[in-house]
Specification:
mainly beta; 14% helix; five-stranded antiparallel beta sheet; globular
């Protein structure tokens, strides 16, 4: 048989790469076994990034916690992968699905998801001195990749996390926002694959809650916090509008800046507002006069003039007596999922037809959190 012309071989390789880049991540990993050339193509960094760019963005990651049913049994923590459509149709089935279920260590918490990688924080609490030791590592639940642990970081219990990707250095970073006993707020940054934590500039505000992970968008992590907090406790009734701010941390420069709130807000909300990134858009949500939910979307991230009010809907129409902020926003800001009147009820509001659907979660989980997710082959060094 005549030897294949080098140009023809290159063209064939490019055709194969083009075709395989459209195959979903899970089956494409099995195609590595077809032959050495396919394994080489699929493992190449250029193909991995091309495949990520073309992967479906219609997926979510569910972090679940199941309390023990009997004495002596430990709680169970896991992550579950689901399509948006499956979850909206039947949340209970999606949460209980075993096919895309991955068990976690009892001390592991999900602190973010980016490009198919899940950032896990393992936290060891020392309640006697209000200190905790934290290690972070990356998991790709699709490929089974697990990174080495970050160096241990000993911090106060008043610490918030964030996880994202720095395209300029092609690195994944985790940021901890730490408030010490004096009220000073600082940030520590770790780049996965590195050997140490780096201290960043001081922070002008501290997030409302340590459970509020930094929201990744456009190479930045974003938190909604209070300017110059004094101590760990505060009364929301004493908070003024000028104390409220969005802090955006740039993962390339390790610096932060303030993003202005929407111009239509002229008084402090009655309840704590919330900030979120869903489907690559920044949202700000708050109550109005304790009777309505208002949602703003930043159409162009970084452009403060692009804040647009998406909806204003009454609690009465939603069937709730008080504001229960959205746990997730689906389908480009059209479907809002809110916590219902009790912990097992979810409310889905579709602003396209103004419809409200109530769903009782019958899964065996007392707690779950939702993250944007995309299937990928990413396995950083």
């Amino acid at each position: 048989m005549a030897a294949q012309h080098p140009t023809a071989a290159v063209l064939l390789c490019e055709v194969v790469m083009e075709i395989l880049s459209w195959v979903p991540a899970k089956p494409v990993t099995r195609l590595k076994l077809v032959c050495k050339s396919w394994n080489s193509i699929i493992s190449h960094p250029h193909f991995v990034k091309l495949h990520l760019h073309r992967s479906s963005k219609n997926a979510i990651l569910l972090f679940t916690l199941t309390q023990p049913l009997t004495l002596g049994e430990e709680r169970k923590q896991s992550i579950v992968l689901s399509s948006v459509e499956s979850f909206i149709q039947n949340p209970s089935s999606a949460l209980d699905a075993q096919e895309n279920h991955h068990s976690l260590h009892v001390q592991d918490w999900v602190s973010g998801s980016c490009n198919g990688l899940v950032c896990l924080a393992r936290i060891l609490y020392h309640p006697n001195n209000h200190i905790c030791d934290i290690w972070f590592r990356l998991l790709n639940p699709l490929t089974g990749f697990i990174s080495e642990n970050s160096p241990c970081l000993s911090v106060s219990m008043h610490t918030a996390f964030g996880f994202g990707y720095d395209e300029s250095s092609d690195s994944y970073k985790v940021v901890t926002v730490i408030r010490d006993s004096s009220g000073t707020v600082t940030a520590q940054v770790y780049s996965f694959g590195g050997s140490s934590w780096k201290r960043a500039n001081s922070f002008p505000a501290f997030p409302f809650s340590v459970e509020d992970n930094g929201h990744f968008i456009g190479g930045t992590l974003n938190w909604l916090g209070l300017r110059n907090p004094h101590g760990g406790a505060y009364d929301w009734a004493d908070v003024t509008l000028d104390m409220l701010m969005i802090v955006s941390f740039d993962l390339k420069s390790d610096t932060n800046k303030q993003i202005l709130l929407p111009k239509g807000i002229d008084e402090i909300p009655g309840q704590k507002p919330t900030l979120g990134v869903w489907e690559n858009s920044l949202y700000f949500l708050h109550d109005y006069k304790n009777t309505h939910l208002i949602a703003w979307q930043m159409k162009e991230f970084g452009d403060e003039n692009s804040w647009t009010q998406l909806l204003k809907i009454s609690f009465h129409h939603l069937g709730v007596e008080r504001l229960l902020f959205p746990e997730f926003i689906f389908e480009n800001g059209n479907i809002f999922m809110l916590r219902g009147r009790h912990r097992f009820e979810e409310v889905f509001y579709d602003r396209r037809d103004n419809s409200v659907k109530r769903v009782n979660i019958l899964a065996n989980n007392c707690y779950f959190d939702i993250f944007d997710y995309v299937e990928s082959l990413i396995q950083p060094c």
